[in-house]
Please model this.
Amino acid sequence: MSDDLYDVLIIGGGPAGLTAGLYSSRAKLKTLLVERMILGGQVMTTTKVENYPGFPGGIDGPDLMIRFQEHCHEFGLENITGEVTALSDRGSEKLVTIDDRQVRARAVIITTGAEPSKLGIPGETELTGRGVSYCATCDGAFFRNVPVAIVGGGDTAAEEALFLTRFASKVYLVHRRDELRATKLLQERIFANDKVEPAWNSVVKEVIGDNTGVTKLSLYNLKEQTEREIEVAGMFVAIGVTPKAHFLADILDMDQDGYILTDSECRTSMPGVFAAGDVRKKILKQIATAVGDGAVAAIVAEKYLDELNLDQ
Ligand code: NAP
Model:
C-alpha cells in the first residue's frame, strides 16, 4: 500500500468488491481493495453455487471466488488485508482508517457484505464453537452419526440441511412457520430426504449443553404453545444475515436494519461514496446481483471522478 492518493478504494473482497476491483483496475484507475479476512466473502463457505450463469452443473464457491481473484489480478488490482474502522469526508478526498493508519481516496466503494444473524437466546453465545455454528459448510463434518438441528426456512437453511445429511444421523429443520421460504427446487430435495425432520411452527428457546458441548435444544411450538426438548449435538443457525456497516452508521443513510440506502446507481448519501452487494438495501441478494452492483458502482465512480477532474 502506497501513501499516494487512490482513485478508488474498495472496502470488502466478496463478489461485489472483486467485480468493482476488476472494472476499476481495468479502467486504469489507481485502485486499492481492503479485505478484513480472506478474499471471496460469504461464497467461500458455500459448497456448490448452482445459479451463477456460465457454470452448468454448478461450481464450488471457493473455486468460483479464486477465478474472480485471478481475473482481478490480471488487471493489476492491488489488495491488502486490514480492517476499515472509519471513513470521513474531506470533499474531493475521503479519509479511510485501515487498522492504525489512514489512506486517502477520491472515491470509495463499500462492499462489506453481511454476516449471519444470531438468535439471541440463552446458551447460544456460550456454546458457539462447541456445537453452535453459523456455517454448516465449515463445521458440518464434525457432526458424524449424531443428530443436529438447523434453524431457519430460507435457501441457506435448506441448502445447509441437505449438506448436513451427508454426516449427521438426523437433521431437525426448525422453522417458525409451517411453510419454507426456500425455493421450490430446494424444498423438493428437503422433503425427499428421509434424514430431514421438520419441526414446524417452532422456535428454539434455549441451547442446553455441558462441558462436552451442545446436548439438547428446548423448542417452543408457537401454534400449539407447547414445549419439548430434542437431543442434538449441534445447532446450525441460518436465519438470514445482518449487514456489516456499523462503522458507517453515523455518516451514511441506512434503513432500520442497517442496510446502506443508495439510488439505483449505487450512490450513497455521501457524494463519492458508493455501496454495492449485500450491504446495500435491495430486493435480491445473490452472487449475480452482487456482480451487477460491483460493475455499476465502479462505472459510476469513474464518472464521478471524471466530473471531479472537470471541476478542478
Ligand atoms: P432468508 O431468505 O432471509 O431466510 C431466513 C429464514 O430464517 C426465514 O425462513 C425466516 O423465517 C427465518 N428467520 C428469520 N429470523 C428468525 C428468527 N429470529 N428466528 C427464527 N427464524 C428466523 O435468508 P437466507 O436463507 O440466508 O437467504 C438470504 C438470501 O440469499 C436470499 O435472497 C436467498 O435467496 C439467497 N440465497 C440463495 C441461495 C441460492 O440461490 N442457492 C443460497 C443461499 C442463500 P420466515 O420465513 O418466517 O421469515
About this structure: The chain has two domains: 6-115+241-311, 118-237. The CA atoms of residues 12 and 112 lie 4 Å apart. The mean pLDDT is 96.
